[in-house]
Amino acid sequence: MYIFKSFHGTPSVFDRLMKSYNGCNAILIKSCKEMEGSYIDYVSNQLKRPVFLIGPVVPEPHTGELDKKWTNWLSQFGSKSVIYCSFGSETFLTDDQIKELALGLELTGLPFFLLVMLPLKGDQLLNSKLMAMEGRVGVEVNRRDEDGYFGKEDVFEAVKSITYEVDKEPAKSVRENHKKCKDFMQNNEIQNKYITDLIEKLQSLSHKTIY
Fold it and tell me: Single GO molecular-function term (predicted)?
């Protein structure tokens, strides 16, 4: 895996992380107990360090207006009917898999955006498991066990399961959980409480370190 590889004789990402963990007094994570509580406790127990949480830290919702060309394009379709598929700079896809992904989206018969940018592979596998299996705010695309390959039919089946019959499972639960997650992430009181608690914990840690 990428995090265990050494490039040009330099320490791997894993080595650098472990050196940082072993040399610190506490670990700060952009997360919250409500979403990843059991995993945060596990990290703290394994690394023998207190974990201080920053909270979800979600940017304010966009309030500006879309360019007219996008407004005109989106207005052709019903509410919540357009698929937005973006990998940002998060993962590697072969040309063949990009093709299969696009063909799978075409099979749905729904309008879609597909954005693929620079590759950088990190914790996306774990994130997908967390979102699909525990958070239940999405579904995973079926892939081959030996190499993770997926085909257009796999993409189609995954998208179909949450877009075609929205009053049936798993689409019903996914949409309900999306709403709950959105409300939670945009709750300023929750975010402010995390920041207040973080400041208090840092002050307490500083006092213990000095004295």
Answer: UDP-glucosyltransferase activity
Long-range contacts of 176-180 (CB under 8 A, 24+ apart): 177/135, 177/136, 177/137, 178/137
What torsion, rounded to 10 degrees, do the Cα atoms 115, 160, 179, 30 define? -40
Token pair in block for residue 154: 């796999």
What are the structural domains, with CATH classification, of the chain?
2-59+188-208 (no CATH), 68-164 (3.40.50.2000)
Cα dihedral sign for 73, 160, 142, 105?
negative
The residues that bridge with 52 in the sheet, in sequence order, are 28
Q: Give the C-alpha separation, 195 to 57, whole Å.
A: 9
DSSP 3-state assignment of 114? Answer: strand
- Asked whether 181 and 141 are in contact (CB, 8 A), the reply is no
Q: What is the pTM of this model?
A: 0.76
